[in-house]
Amino acid sequence: MTLVGRHDSLRVLADAASAAKVGQGALVMVRADPGLGVTSLLEAHVSAMRDSGLRLHRIPVLRPGGRTSLSDQMPELDEPAMVVIDDLHQADDATLLALHALAEDVYSRPLLIVAGRHRRVAAQRFAALDRFAIVHDLEPLTPDAVRAMLGEPSPRAADAGGNPWLLSRIHAADRPAQVTVWAADLAGADTHLLRCAALLGDAASVDELAAVTGATPSEVLSGVARLTAQGLAEEAAGEVRLRYPLLRKDIVSTSSGLRGSVAKVLAQRGARVERVAEHLVHGTVDSWTIDWLTERAEMLTARATPAVVRLLERGVAALQPGDPRLPPLRAAWVEALLWSGQMDRARRAASEGLLAQPDESIRNRLLAVLGIIASGEFTPEPVLEVLETVRGEGDLPPRLAVLDAYAQLLAGDMEATQRAVAAASPAAADDPLVEVYLCNVRTIGLCLLRDYAAAREQLDRGAVLLEISAYDRAQWLISRMLRALLQNLEHDPDVLETIEQARPIARDLGLGFLPWLHTIAAVAALNFGEWDRALTEVEDALALPHQHGMAGPLHAVAATILLNRGDLPAARAHAQLADRAPIYGVAMFYESLMMVTRAVLAGVDGDLERAMEIVRDVVERNVGMRHDRSIAPVCVPLVRIAVAGGEKELALRLIDRMREWSDEDDAKVNYCLGLVDGDVDRLLAAAQDFTENSTPLVAAQAAQDAAVALAASGRSAAAKAAYQSAIDKYAAMAAHREIDRTAANLRSYGVQFGASGPRGRPKHGWDSLTGAELRVVELVAQGLTNREAAERLILSVRTVDSHVSRVLRKLDCSSRLELAVKFRDRDADA
Known about the structure:
By secondary structure, this protein is mainly α.
């Protein structure tokens, strides 16, 4: 009989049996919580000992009284012998007294007594026996044992907490019923308390349990203590939790009849509306439910869980036409669909609601939903069309006016944006949500003006309002992404954390928010030298069904990285795709990035005339949002192109543009001046400044330019030192092209490198792996599937598949198993 994960326990019992055969008996007390497999362990031990020479005596404990053959008199035991008693926690006092008598001299007899019992049930009753016994506690199965037991990964396995009984039912079609019956059998008279604890969620307070069950807090605590003794529950600091998440979920699924009464008790106690809705959605939608929904509609829509959406939908369906509660409830349902990311359903429901010709307030709410969806797709024209339906009636209502501001901003009409802001601003004092919208619009304008301090103040104000006065998932998301943009402009490494905070909501809402978030993340990772991460963001965004105008900037990021890494065919392919991609909405703010990519590639291809033409277009302000401030951040690579093409006057015009919107001691301005003048000191100082500000690519380029300038002046040793500084940064990013190109440039000045000179990342072996690839290898070696690794690293499965394929090729492995073995061997050698 095979018992997974209990080899050590079987060895303990087998060693005790071997000792008993030679006259050194023992009492072994096996303890565990229910479901951890005491009975299975004893059965496996008995099976293994059949040919051991020990006579077997099985002593059953008879329910309900707990009588056994030891209750009346001590049986004759032919020795050497093994006595096995299961469920000892149910045995009567006479049985325990008989065991005490046997245990007093068992260690001098060829007698092994193996008893199994539940660990926490009446523990004091067994304290004296435990002192005589070899106590062996069974613990939950380890993750490796769980995998061995199931044979294949299961997303529910973690919820079973390593409990073998629960794990054995993981795939059963009627698992919820089986688990509930098992738990109810253990809970006995406390089954109702157990069900209520499950229904109240992950942590139920004693007071809530008392209110729901109609018991006193003291009675609840006594019941919880009994459930804890059975291994079903745990209590700490007044909060009760069921021991296993799977147990709670299955009991909840079989206890729907209680949910209505639980919901009403929670509502009376002022519980969170979404928590009440989780229960109401499983019951009948009665008049009380409709009234409760109507009174709390605004709170429900702001944090629309799937249960909230379903409950509102059922409420709308339950009302008859003409009921005055129907229009506001329908508007709340439409808004809940919007904030839960069900955009197509929200659009249809809003349009259908407008056909009913609701009053002005409801109409404006439905129009706002249509406008938000259109603006989330980054297409201003549909938003403006929606607003045109009411614009003829006079001034737009404040919440529609702020949508107008967004649409005009997306259309690139800055004057119309300012007019819309002015129209909405008077209402901001009375409507916090209007002020949140305005804070985000103002932030965008201030970022264009490079007034980062003022932009940060607007974001902070909006964050406070979202926290205490208003909640709008789209505006919260936009404010997070704007903060990430600002952090990226200021070279703040916290940008990557901000992006991760925003990612779950972006995934929920979808539309253009998700590709925009990927673009922000890709640009940030590009700037901070995390190029593998940047390429992953690009790949994940391009795998989406629609990029909402962001495909051009995404391809430009990929082209920039691949160009620096020396993969010119792939870089050109991405650049061509960027040129062909439609650009609109938010993507227009990234057009300067795309133009820089075009100019750099033109220079690499030897088409300096085309490169200079692009730079002149930028200088003439024919780029992006046609706003002078938006091009200042991308002037550095353009100055490098102008200097390389011998166009110093053009370079100085770009530097003047940078100075207009930069601090006096801005490192990028000084770097560009160093390029124009060939000033080595300025170049080296800029390289140091960029290194400290976490901008590795520009730092490497500055050190590279300093190395060339030093070599040109005949200072070979200093040139090598500067080049080494550049190499260290380029190698970390695998920028092979820049390494090779600069080395060739320095050789043209007579600076030679020996066999031990700087090298880029090798093509094969462990040193060829990128940071992202190495992280994937670590997880593969731990036994994770590609899907599990993707979830752990917050990547797409396709991206992890690509990483694994590249790693297998680089390490010359034919399988994941060989890869895991190589990793473990390498780890051991280290």
